[in-house]
């Protein structure tokens, strides 16, 4: 580099500007660059940012400090720009347009013998490292290119992988889509995996440079970008509609509504991969003769059509998430299947057009009691908000007596965190015979204020359920365990991972909650036994709209006893409350209940949840 006297430098520096310019130079990088790094030239930084992966600013910027920063962050290209702003930029590729060396004529703010670019000019260095590349496709998959992904999804079904988005790679995504039976896979925004049986939404080819985000779990390959998805096509055979089990018949489309379900028992599928076959199988296993699929991903069961379900000829037009070759109802529309014969008249909208023939062997209605008597017990009523919480009471309402024998049921779901790629898990219902309550009663669904199915009388209807760590089973039990209504949710941890953490999340989207007013929360959290339980006190955290309401330790320890007996004496609870809640900072309308077992001894003591109430 040429030498300058102090007087010459003073002459060359602009007295009015913030940056120093040198009109002519010999190219010579700093003396302390890391091994392998070399000067690559002066480049244009525009019209869009050319080195954009990482950056920092430093009023004492030098060429060496910028190169060290980029090397420490794993980038093979570094560039310094506009000395007075002292900006360092990193990326994988050298910019496209080289300029004369004299264009990069600002001296570095941290070393006046070095050059740090200029306005829209980068002094660029590189160690010759390789850039991340598009994966041409794992075995059995073909790379299709970079595509747009706008308002309507190019691929409809989001897939989860073991380790989450931070572990994302093309192989992880294609493996997940293969496991779910889809023919197309796509990676997007670095951490997202999408699957489908066709390319949808009017997607169009996009420039390959638009798909420039690194995969969360593999920084040597690219995983799409913002509203850009890299697509792959697999060698999966085209899907065909389900073959119905022997005796089951398709009965058409019914109107449905969330206020009064045509079929009353919900059987969900974790991940949203419902299809006709697994819905019918779940309903049949639980002893039901009617099955219905709705809104692409919901499965409903019963032995009779409730609330005047009305036949219709339109609206059942949503492909099943578990098999896009068949339809799974639509919004407020149910594709109905039955084991017994039905007479559904699609020429009328009268609910009387639905007839269940008397020739069927039995018509059973699932409930939690062994028989109906002349009383319905309604309990666990929270009637005020503020500083007073009314103690649960029992009210008896007289009804006509009957001796119809009714089987009980429970909804059992077993999911676990897999060791490799997450595969959708099916929630199945299983029938059971439960002992009679001390005082038998008909089941009344619990719906408290904003939370639907707060007492789990309809299984997990309205709730999304997911195990995020370890192995946990969830069972809706009905025999003498509930605190209120006639059902309670039992969560049982199973085999313990090395860190002992088992975690399950329940989520429900609420409607009509005014977050500008104080709210109140209450719930019953319990155990199966009154004896002292030494399991570290599983923690139960409740939040609304990402605002934490509170975190409680499950009762059962010597310091935190379960002091409330369920009416049937087989469940023991503690009521938890939080009054005068401020939810003004809520980011969405979801109430979330998270239960975490963190004992390293892997103890498998269940937790009971009942009457989750937000007022």
Automatic annotation (TrEMBL):
Protein's UniProt keywords contain Cell division:
no
Cell inner membrane among the record's keywords? no
Name where it mostly resides: membrane
Membrane topology annotation: Single-pass membrane protein
- InterPro entries from the xrefs? Kremen_rcpt (IPR051836), WSC_carb-bd (IPR002889)
Location comes to: Membrane
UniProt superkingdom: Eukaryota
Q: Mind telling me which Pfam families this protein's record contains?
A: WSC
Q: Where is the WSC domain?
A: 36-128, 140-235, 247-340
What Gene Ontology terms describe where this protein resides (cellular component)?
Answer: plasma membrane
Keyword annotations for this protein, in alphabetical order, are: Glycoprotein, Membrane, Signal, Transmembrane, Transmembrane helix
- Signal peptide boundaries: 1-19
Protein name per its UniProtKB record: WSC domain-containing protein
């Amino acid at each position: 580099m040429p030498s300058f006297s102090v007087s010459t430098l003073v002459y060359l520096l602009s007295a009015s500007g913030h940056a120093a310019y040198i009109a002519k130079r010999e190219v010579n990088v700093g003396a302390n660059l890391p091994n392998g790094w070399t000067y690559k030239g002066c480049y244009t930084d525009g019209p869009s940012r050319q080195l954009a992966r990482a950056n920092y600013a430093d009023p004492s910027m030098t060429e060496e400090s910028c190169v060290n920063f980029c090397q420490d962050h794993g980038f093979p290209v570094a560039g310094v720009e506009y000395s007075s702003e002292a900006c360092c930029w990193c990326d994988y590729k050298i910019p496209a347009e080289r300029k004369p060396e004299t264009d990069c004529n600002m001296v570095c703010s941290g070393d006046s013998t070095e050059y740090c670019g200029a306005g829209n000019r980068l002094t660029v260095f590189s160690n010759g490292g390789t850039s991340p590349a598009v994966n041409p496709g794992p075995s059995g998959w073909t790379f299709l290119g970079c595509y747009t992904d706008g308002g309507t999804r190019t691929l409809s079904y989001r897939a989860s992988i073991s380790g989450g988005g931070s572990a994302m790679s093309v192989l992880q995504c294609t493996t997940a889509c293969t496991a779910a039976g889809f023919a197309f896979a796509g990676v997007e925004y670095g951490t997202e995996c999408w699957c489908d049986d066709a390319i949808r939404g009017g997607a169009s080819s996009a420039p390959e440079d638009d798909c420039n985000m690194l995969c969360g779990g593999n920084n040597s390959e690219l995983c799409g970008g913002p509203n850009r998805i890299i697509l792959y096509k697999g060698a999966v055979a085209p899907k065909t509609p389900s073959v119905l089990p022997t005796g089951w018949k398709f009965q058409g489309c019914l109107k449905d509504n969330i206020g009064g379900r045509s079929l009353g028992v919900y059987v969900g599928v974790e991940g949203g991969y419902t299809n006709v076959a697994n819905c019918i199988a779940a309903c049949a296993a639980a002893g039901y003769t009617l099955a219905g699929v709705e809104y692409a991903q919901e499965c409903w069961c019963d032995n009779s059509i409730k609330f005047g379900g009305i036949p219709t000829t339109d609206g059942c037009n949503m492909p099943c998430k578990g098999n896009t070759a068949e339809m799974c109802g639509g919004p407020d529309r149910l594709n109905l299947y039955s084991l017994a014969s039905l007479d559904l008249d699609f020429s009328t909208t009268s609910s009387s057009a639905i007839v269940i023939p008397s020739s069927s062997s039995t018509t059973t209605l699932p409930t939690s009691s062994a028989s109906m008597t002349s009383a319905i017990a309604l309990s666990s009523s929270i009637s005020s908000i503020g500083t007073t919480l009314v103690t649960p009471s029992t009210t008896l309402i007289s009804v006509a007596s009957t001796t119809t024998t009714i089987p009980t049921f429970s909804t059992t779901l077993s999911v676990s965190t897999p060791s490799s790629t997450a595969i959708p898990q099916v929630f199945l219902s299983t029938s059971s015979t439960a002992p009679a309550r001390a005082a038998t009663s008909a089941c009344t669904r619990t719906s408290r204020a904003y939370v639907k199915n707060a007492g789990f009388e309809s299984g997990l209807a309205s709730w999304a359920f997911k195990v995020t760590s370890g192995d946990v089973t969830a069972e809706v039990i009905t025999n003498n365990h509930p605190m209120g209504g006639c059902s309670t949710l039992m969560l049982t941890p199973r085999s313990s991972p090395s860190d002992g953490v088992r975690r399950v999340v329940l989520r429900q989207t609420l409607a009509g909650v005014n977050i500008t007013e104080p709210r109140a929360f209450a719930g019953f959290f319990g155990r199966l036994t009154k004896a002292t339980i030494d399991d570290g006190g599983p923690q139960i955290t409740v939040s609304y709209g990402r605002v934490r309401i509170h975190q409680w330790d499950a009762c059962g320890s010597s310091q935190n006893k379960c002091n409330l007996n369920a009416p049937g004496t087989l469940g023991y609870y503690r009521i938890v409350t939080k009054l005068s809640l401020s939810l003004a900072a809520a980011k969405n309308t979801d109430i979330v209940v998270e239960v975490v077992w963190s004992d390293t001894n892997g103890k498998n003591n269940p937790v009971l949840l009942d009457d989750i109430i937000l007022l």
